[in-house]
TrEMBL record:
Annotated PANTHER family: BLR4117 PROTEIN (PTHR30231:SF7), DNA POLYMERASE III SUBUNIT EPSILON (PTHR30231)
CDD domains assigned to the protein according to its UniProt record, in alphabetical order: DEDDh (cd06127)
Protein name: 3'-5' exonuclease
Domain of life: Bacteria
């Protein structure tokens, strides 16, 4: 955590007046970006990005008309074993975008808003492995983990309860429909809906 803070301060000092300086400005609005990646591996040190899904959450509303849904060009690391993870085949990536173009779009879409997701640290670690060599910085955005928000809300209502934090179980408890599981945009929208539901009054426990 200390190393991350030092790196963010250094990145801000080096880039605050550059092309991406807006990413380092403090955010004070009521929006966040629900984000999900589909990748070739569950190891962030080697995972390549197959698709990116992101949708804007404003207050207690999911703005499904304001979203990012990008498939990337097939990476060399796409294997039969990795297809078992995400069910994305090489043919599904036909016509996909170059990684650099996809990252440009993502940075513009996110801006300096908080990034929210399910196991979001994994997605951010994968992104930073690709972003840092290209841009010279890591994502400075605040990260919000859906499962932590949900767990805290449940335990404020019932301190003795240890909730099931699996993606499908959270959705079931919150009565949120799962939108295209194991697609980046589907998981991003579902995560956004779960987050909004968690933030609205009492939730089922």
């Amino acid at each position: 955590m200390v190393l991350k803070t030092i790196r963010t301060v250094t990145d801000r000092w080096q880039h605050s007046k550059g092309e991406y300086g807006y990413l380092f400005e403090p955010y004070s609005g009521d929006e966040c970006i629900a984000l999900d990646l589909e990748t070739t591996s569950l190891d962030p040190q080697v995972a390549d990005i197959l698709s990116i899904g992101a949708v804007k959450v404003k207050g207690k509303k999911v703005i499904t008309s304001d979203k990012l849904d990008i498939k990337l060009q097939k990476p060399e690391t796409l294997t039969a074993d990795s297809i078992k993870i995400h069910r994305i085949r090489g043919v599904d990536l036909h016509g996909g975008e170059a990684l650099g173009d996809a990252l440009d779009q993502l940075l513009e879409f996110i801006g300096n808003r908080p990034i929210m997701g399910y196991y979001i640290d994994f997605d951010i670690a994968v992104l930073n492995r690709h972003i840092r060599p290209r841009y010279g910085f890591s994502l400075p955005n605040k990260a919000v983990e859906l499962s932590h928000v949900y767990q805290q809300k449940v335990q404020r209502m019932n301190p003795e309860l240890q909730p099931d934090l699996h993606f499908e179980k959270i959705a079931e408890k919150l009565q949120v429909p799962i939108m295209g599981r194991h697609t980046a945009i589907g998981d991003a929208v579902t995560t956004a809906l779960m987050y909004v539901r968690t933030m609205q009054g009492n939730i089922p426990v």
